[in-house]
Amino acid sequence: MHAWPASEVPALPGKGRDLRIHDTATDGLVTLAPGPVARIYVCGITPYDATHIGHAATYNAFDLVQRVWLDTKRQVHYVQNVTDVDDPLLERAQRDNVDWVALAEQETALFREDMTALRMLPPQDYIGAVEAIPGIVPLVERLRDAGAAYELEGDVYFSVESDPNFGKVSNLDAAAMRLLSAERGGDPDRPGKKSPLDPMLWMAAREGEPCWDGGSLGPGRPGWHIECVAIALDHLGMRFDIQGGGSDLAFPHHEMGASHAQVLTGEFPMATAYVHAGMVALHGEKMSKSKGNLVFVSALRRAGVDPAAIRLALLAHHYRADWEWTDQVLQEAVARVDRWRAAVSRPDGPPAETLVEEIRAALANDLDAPAALAAVDRWAALQQERGGTDEGAPGVVSRAVDALLGVAL
Q1: Cα–Cα distance, 40 to 38 (Å, whole number)
Q2: In angstroms, rounded to a whole number, what is the distance separating the alpha carbons of residues 335 and 309?
Q3: pTM score
Q4: What is the pLDDT of residue 288?
């Protein structure tokens, strides 16, 4: 599966700072100091309804991570999946009486267009669940043969008790885990499971649903969590720098995935930091496909909204915060991009070297994009009030905003 084209990232003078970021597992800030190649895995879309502002906010956060690392003169190995076969996709295809493969391809293509418009840097490896199945089956077989998985009416489940470190990503108690499992794709009430929390690794073929050769597992399709584990281990290995996604993925998805990987490899932890973006609401409720209260990036673009303004609307909120999308949020972002473009359009301006360091410091401090925006706002206000004599300043600001914030002025 191919990703989307990369926008050029301008090179800035000097060198950025190492990233200090919040780790869900320890509930504290950790300073990441990767080697020459920083490694990040971000969970991708299930392509049946893309791309809403909640998606965009999540991928914007991890785009900033990449930009901070690139500014430290590191390379970045970024991997993202596409869950191109799953119950929600099949249910949507059946509801709309369309082919599920065509629906997945259509929505993935739209997602690529939105990511390109928003200047999100693409993953080096963009892998669909279907294409990963040949690598998933052996992992499930290994877990079963090691006694960490078991069969139930043809389905194969992972035993959470096989991982002594289970629970160390989300740090939730059993009651909270059971509740979230039921809400987020699990089946805690299924009779016969060793633990209500045990997640499915391999679903035996169901009548009328797609299935693949599972070797000794029999025909079927993979569970949600093992998909990402197989892709991450294949392309990044264990102990990569960041496992990322929305805050609703901490449990069960990232918790279960970590346990799968830790049992398979005998290593702990799977990732150095588990980083989660907040949720975006509309009309007082979290944006969700089930509620239908979604604002789509493609719809905004069709309405003539500048993608730079959409991106600035996202950047105006700290990535870990839960916030609400409103017309005012967008109007403020449109006004901001207009002010910034006016400021950099002049032939000279106030010195900008300090501004570049302010942006770097803000982003290195747990991706504090609002503080970075405020720094650019101050420079733009100074430019408007009295200008300056530094002929290179507007260009420096324009390149810094592009390189570090992903906004083309």
Answers
A1: 7
A2: 8
A3: 0.96
A4: 73
